[in-house]
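Deviation from plan, reported transparently: nicotinamide-adenine-dinucleotide complex.
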Amino acid sequence: MVDVKKIVVVGSGLMGNGIAQVSLMAGYNVTLVDIKDEFLDKAFANIEKGLKKSESKGQLGEGVTADALMAKLKRTLDLASAVKDADYTIEAVVENMKVKKEVFKTMAENSPAHCILATNTSTMSITEIAKDCGRPENVIGMHFFNPVPLMRCIEVIAGEKSSEEAMETGMAVSNSLPCLRGNRYVAKVLIDRPGFIVNRMNAPGQIYLSWVFDQAKEKQIPWNQIDADGGHAMPMGPCELCDYVGLDTMHHVMEYYAETLSPNFKPGKVISELVEAGNLGAKTGKGFYDWSGGRPKIDKSQKAGLFDLQTMMAIMLNEGCRILEEGVASGFKIIDDANMAGMNTPGPFGAGKKNFEAWSKLLDEIADKTGAEYLRPCELMKSGGFVKMRK
Ligand SMILES: NC(=O)c1ccc[n+]([C@@H]2O[C@H](COP(=O)([O-])OP(=O)(O)OC[C@H]3O[C@@H](n4cnc5c(N)ncnc54)[C@H](O)[C@@H]3O)[C@@H](O)[C@H]2O)c1
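Because the crystal trials were delayed, the predicted structure below was used instead.
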């Protein structure tokens, strides 16, 4: 395993500056790279603010100060020189394959032979990013959740050519990074499939949601009644949640899974129309609801009876079973734990052990209603075979 002392974080945006912050807190020497000084200025200010806050809460450890950690943070616009003495790099640049490939080529050509090269991509193939860099065996995925200092989960993903040593080093570095809200949880992702574990398991629920929205529009059911269907178990109902996440993000993610998993992910009419009209949710002030005066007050006194949380759990269990069938994770406990650590919500296997038969029927019904074959239960779910599998 590589003895990691210096980490280079490439891209200092939302994710990159959080990654740099936790790397400093773990005691590494860190260099942050971006393409413009103004981006690095902003990132440095954010990191310093985060570290000072941690210092004031006593989270940095005995005698460790924010100033001392900031002194271990370097910056540059020159990636090739930054990686010359790096042991480990974490790429967090824009989600664009061409840009990522260029970054990996520069890193592979200019870093020492032992240096492990990790990518924080959320939707791209690790294998493809690594393909032309010259050292694909050193490349792994290292998928963080936003905000990095507060979210416990990191998924470490093996590309087709990733070496055991690269994976082991990735797991060790991930485990060493502190989390300010509970213990760090690192999930080993055994093969490179779209969405890895957590995002993948939560993806097909969007097929169902998109259908619910279209049905509601057709039947002229107001959005607040759909949110009322979510009940108290959902702090935000489906419409409010989509507004909060951003309808453009949801649209983009569905298009991605439509290309990589199944055409059934194609976004429906309501989502497409909202995006086309520029009503993207909270960030534009309008989506399903009006956000111009802050978080909308939603009357949940009357239910529509259209959206059902059990169905969402059944869909998650089905996708969790597909993840097991494909060999993406070694057992169902990892999937449940990763979901808790990445989404702050329980995974489906606990309840699924008792409910897989009823839920399989539910999925057949929903597949009939929506016409989305992807929602039909897979063999491992129908048979309950996952119960007997390794945890
Ligand atoms: N935002 C999330 O919630 C989230 C979660 C998990 C993973 N990710 C992934 O993390 C990556 C970064 O996302 P983000 O939200 O931080 O984006 P961001 O736009 O906030 O930051 C990207 C940064 O990369 C810089 N950059 C662009 N090209 C560069 C280059 N050639 N060299 C160095 N820096 C370059 C940009 O100037 C910018 O500062 C993406 O791959 C994204 O898919 C994002």
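The chain has a mean pLDDT of 96. We consider this an acceptable substitute for the interim report.
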